[in-house]
User: Fold this.
Amino acid sequence: MGKHRKYAVDKLGIDERIDHRTLKQQGIEQKPTIKIGLESVSNGAQVYGDR
Assistant:
């Protein structure tokens, strides 16, 4: 599957690479976030505020 993504990225002329390592493995310290999917937002879910 990674080859397909690389091909698509190259075809679009995007000069970025996909890093499949975890953020921790990349040396990035970031607190986990809550994923709010498009379906939830389109159904009127509160995006910002108390959680």
About this structure: Helices lie at 2-11, 38-42. The chain has a mean pLDDT of 75.
